[in-house]
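Thread: "does anyone have the structure for this chain?"

Original post by V.I.:
We have the sequence but no experimental structure in hand. Need at least a predicted one for the grant figures.
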Amino acid sequence: MLLTKVDGDPLEDITALRKTSLVIKGEQVFKPEQIYNAIGVKPFVLASNITH
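Reply from O.Q.:
Generated one for you, tokens below.
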């Protein structure tokens, strides 16, 4: 199972799908902001704030 959180409403604006702020696959949580920083790319949106 894959869950993706986007910044915006893709039903209103399809380009919101390009603004992924969080991806959850199984029990793993991926914050695109951290991945972008690791490869030297400026994040498009800030990652969602998650607390455990």
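V.I.: this helps a lot. Residues 8 and 40 are 24 Å apart (CA to CA).
O.Q.: and Residues 2-39 form one domain.
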